[in-house]
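Lab notebook, bench 4. Still working through the backlog of constructs that have no structural model yet. Next entry is a single chain of 103 residues. Request: give me the structure tokens for it.
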Amino acid sequence: MIRALRSFPQRRPKCLIPEARTGVLHFAIMAVDASKLLNEALSLPPEARAALAATLIESLDETVDPDAEAEWAREIARRLKDLDAGRVQTIPWAEVRRSILRP
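Model written out:
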């Protein structure tokens, strides 16, 4: 498990509980407030929030394409090399977000 998540409570989310009806598995939404879960996640330190977000996003991938994974690894290595060599400059997220949200 990612080190940053070790401090995150290791309990099963209470918002989805399996419920059997007529042989089909249904998920009943419980009265647990989703905003409480969100607030708990947002109160984590930045590193833990990033790790949690990455884990949630990874959980959406049902299949892994080994060729795509290898290509991403090469692309990441290339971008890091460009950064280290000073061939590219980073742009702060706040600036990028403003430019995206600007009407």
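Notes after review: The chain is about 50% helix and 10% strand. The chain has two domains: 1-62, 65-103. Flag for follow-up if needed.
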